[in-house]
Amino acid sequence: MKHKLGMVLEGGALRGLFTAGVLDVFLDEAIKVDGVIGVSAGATFGCNFLTKQKGRALRYCLRFIHDPRFCSVPSLLLTGDMFGAEFCYHTIPEQLDPIDNETFLQGGVPFYIACTDVHTGKAVYHQCRDLLSREELEWVRACASMPLASRIVHAGQYDMLDGGISDSIPLKYFEYKGFDRNIVILTQPEGYQKSPNSTMPLVRTVYRKYPNLIRAMERRHIYYNRQLAHVLEAEQNGTAFVIRPPEKLPVSHVSHDPDKLCAVYRIGRETGLAVLPALRDYLAGLA
Fold first, then answer.
1. Among the listed residues 133, 168, 131, 171, the one whose alpha carbon sits nearest the alpha carbon of residue 50
2. pLDDT digit string (tens) for 100-138?
3. How much is the pLDDT for 45?
4. CB atoms within 10 A of CB 262
5. Residue 146: C-alpha distances to residues 32, 119, 266 (Å)
């Protein structure tokens, strides 16, 4: 039986440059998968794997990291979005560092993202079919819109925020979609466990109109740690090949230090190269 190989990309804001480094190694080595699902930065950086634009994620981060329209407190105060909505999700991919939509369309690899419905607190999954459609880019923005640092995004029939609230590591969803083998790229090291959210008092105030969202955020650490347990189980039984940082990455969600961004990307590349022999063995076993 031929296996269906998926790739699951965790988020983590600028920790996602670790994933970008791993994926650029995959591009160098012509690693192919049958489908990709990304959450938050896993989606915004991960789509470059499907467009075959090696280095793009790091390139535009370094180019614009000091531009207040890209990521800044002034942007948050003036627009409600720390990562500028128009600049990050339209101006950059459409004009300043264009995304190669033609390569994405020709590749034909399904690309899914996970968002969170603020009314239900549950995950909403969406297949992106065109990376330069304004509507599709709004879905991607919703997927990566961190609570308290972003406005609620309307796309399709939904009002949404970051998919990491409801499904940080959507391995079970991809298994449900028929991907019986998966490469899972995490942005936290082995042994990590998420703690309760220390910003919950502010969350309850800001999102008081969305009780289901508040409940999801209250329990997010529980859901996340259960997902980690499922990932570990899948790794142990051979249905998943898991790639993690070797240690805690030297960057938080947001950083304006170019050296730190380069370091996270470099760790991703080094990790990708280190696991490559084991990954090739794993893939050979799927034939």
1. 131
2. 999 999 999 999 999 999 999 999 999 999 999 999 999
3. 94
4. 15
5. 30, 16, 25
Strands 123-128 and 111-117: antiparallel
Global pTM value:
0.96
Write out pLDDT tens, residues 209-228: 999 999 999 999 999 999 99
Token readout for 27 is 């591009």
Give the Cα-Cα-Cα angle 279, 227, 54 (nearest 5 degrees). Answer: 40
Beta strands per DSSP E along the chain: 5-9, 35-39, 111-117, 123-128, 153-155, 158-162, 181-185, 240-243
Mean model confidence pLDDT for the chain: 96
Contacts of 13 (CB under 8 A, 6+ apart): 40, 41, 146, 252, 253, 254
**3-state class (DSSP) for residue 71:** strand
Cβ neighbours for 95, distance < 8 A, ≥ 6 positions apart: none
High-pLDDT (> 70) share of the chain, %:
100
Determine the number of helices (DSSP H) and then strands (DSSP E) in the chain: 13, 8
With H, G, I as helix, E, B as strand and everything else as coil, classify residue 177: coil
CB 153 within 8 A of CB 88: no
3-state SS, residue 9: strand
Longest CA pairwise span in the chain (Å) = 55
Phi first, then psi: give them for residue 37, nearest 5 degrees. Answer: -130, 135
In the block, residue with structure tokens 């390569």:
103
pLDDT at 93: 94
pLDDT of 254: 81
Query: What is the model's pLDDT at position 2?
Result: 84
